[in-house]
Amino acid sequence: MTDSIVVRMDAIGIAASEPAASLAFYRLLGLTFPEGAERLPHVETELPGGIRLMFDPDEDAAGRGRGRISLAFHCGDAAGVDATYALLTGAGHHGEAKPWDAVWGQRYAIVLDPDGNEAHLFA
Questions:
Q1: Closest to 112 (Cα-Cα) out of 57, 69, 53
Q2: In a domain? residue 2
Q3: How many domains would you assign to the chain?
Q4: Of all residues in the chain, what percent are helix, strand and coil, respectively (each to 5)?
Q5: Is residue 52 part of a domain?
Q6: What secondary structure letter does DSSP report for 80?
Q7: Strands 8-16 vs 95-101: parallel, antiparallel or unpaired
Q8: What domain range is 46 assigned to?
């Protein structure tokens, strides 16, 4: 990593085969989610320290044979996403999705860790 790129752990994502059951479980552990979150396509809550815990539905999560948790890293800006993707793939890690300009307004890329968990890079 060069001195000009600042990468910050920002979020943990969980692919939930039954989102409503997952939210109920984590509510029992003291996490809070918006009322009616069970019906939303994406749900997140902020944890102490500012890290976000995110849930997205994935009907195939239980049987897809790879990680079900993803980590999201804020890379500062679009150039940071591109440089971090190049660093990781240059070190031999699998690039799942090359950097692209997402419709939701972020520069985005995905690299798999050695266990198949997704590292989402964004700005």
A1: 69
A2: no
A3: 1
A4: 25, 35, 40
A5: yes
A6: H
A7: unpaired
A8: 8-122
- Whether the CB-CB separation of 96 and 113 falls below 8 Å is answered with no
Residue 52, strand partner residues? 11, 46
Query: Would residue 103 count as lying in a domain?
Result: yes
In the structure encoding, which two tokens stand for residue 2, read together? 């060069």
Nearest by Cα to 60 from 6, 9, 17: 17
Output phi, psi for 31, to 5 deg. Answer: -80, 150
For range 40-48, the mean pLDDT: 91
pLDDT in tens, 56-89: 887 665 555 555 788 899 999 999 999 999 999 9
Quote the pTM value. Answer: 0.71
Kind and range of the H or E element at 95? strand 95-101
Report if residue 116 sits inside a domain. yes
Q: Which contiguous run of DSSP H or E holds residue 84?
A: helix 78-90
